[in-house]
Design brief:
With 185 residues, the chain is of the alpha+beta class. It folds into two domains: 2-60, no CATH class; 63-178, no CATH class. It has helices at residues 16-19, 45-61, 63-78, 96-102, 123-143, 147-160, 170-178; strands at residues 2-7, 23-28, 33-38, 42-43, 82-86, 89-93, 111-114, 117-120. It has a four-stranded antiparallel β-sheet with strand order 1-2-3-4. Strand 2 and strand 3 form a beta hairpin. The chain starts with a strand and ends in a 7-residue tail after the last helix. Residues 1-41 have low confidence and may be disordered. The structure holds zinc ion (ZN). Zinc ion is lined by residues 132, 136, 172, 175.
Length: 185
Amino acid sequence: MLKPVTFTVGFGDFSSKIRQQRYSLVTNSRWKLWFLSLDAGKLSIWGFLLNVLLKVIFYTWTSPNSLIGSLLGLIGLLTGGRVQVREGCLEFFGGFVSRFLERLGTQGVAAMTLGHTILGQDRETLDIVRSHEQIHVTQYEKWGVLFIPVYLGCSAYLWLAGKDCYRDNPFEQQAYREEAPRIKN
Ligand SMILES: [Zn+2]
């Protein structure tokens, strides 16, 4: 008998669509065969291992960004901040991290993603913005060390063209388009 045990892979994938798919671990006790299946279609163990290998490449590819986020987060930890692990990312909040975010832009920002780290004002804010920031994580996984220069380049171009360098930025537009709908009170 096949005994499916469904679980969600805890780290993000390179596309937000794949990220949301659930993996099922299926075992055939008679043949002692283990394989993994996706809800939509089947994925062999090799497919899964390839997925993990790609994941390692993506984490490495954007690690300089994650390092910057971790250093800012570490200063946060030394100044009363906290850290938690959510969806394959280190989330830092409080302490220096909150004060740093409050000084960004004209009126401060709620959160900011740097590779596989997310800096947030506080735990509640992170819960609200997580799905948006996770889209940025997939963008970092695609662009790696090029993400920040390309993002800022887009913003500079938009600013020179007299447009909104945040809302009109294609990276933000994708994040707002693909983030989970927020629950309206
Ligand atoms: Zn954003």
